[in-house]
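Internal ticket - ligand job 230, calcium ion:
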Amino acid sequence: MNKPLILVVEDDTSVRNLITTTLKSNDYRFLSAPNGESAIACASSQQPDIVLLDLGLPDLDGVEIIRRIRSWSQMPIIVISARSEDSDKIAALDAGADDYLTKPFSVAELLARLRVTQRRLAAMNVSQGGSTFRNGQLSIDYGAGCAYLSGSVLKLTPTEYKLLCLLAKDVGKVLTHTYLTDKIWGSSWESDIASLRVHMATLRKKIEKDPDTQYIQTHIGIGYRMLKTE
Ligand code: CA
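stdout (structure tokens):
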């Protein structure tokens, strides 16, 4: 398999060097761009496998860059942000980012996020056109409208099933509360988010019976992600 090509978009030279050095010593190929315009040009001409995007750039807003890239490509975008405010991350995720890292981050964290995204890419390639989803002991037969755990039918409510399908469709990606409630109920009031928590809790009780298996990760104040198990 080819080494993945990562586009690093970061205006801070020391952070950019840290990232590219890490990538180099971990067998990734990389390109780098110091601002938004060059990032967009590079993304379209070089077609990287994954984009690591700093949200605070001198020329363009990071969320705007995500929107522009998403208008023609689904390439995975991991946002890197010095801002710890959840609202920036949520705006980036809702614009189409796949994941986020908050500065300062460790090298181990960066590599972990890249691995999650690569698994997501691999899962996307496998599942294209398929009518069955598989992740560890969990599976969904979309045609039958049924989900299974270790081969046994899961007794899910319609909302739990819908929620599971949404998470499965974007396995490995962080989905915001707004995105999920919008897809399920067509709205995203505070009360919808509260209901979402309840449905999520009941769904998790059913699919995470085995305490060693975690399928869903909670991102407090942001949303949820289905983890791709090896
Ligand atoms: Ca910056």
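Auto-summary: Residues 107-127 form the longest helix (21 residues). Residues 129-226 form a domain with the Arc Repressor Mutant, subunit A fold (CATH 1.10.10.10).
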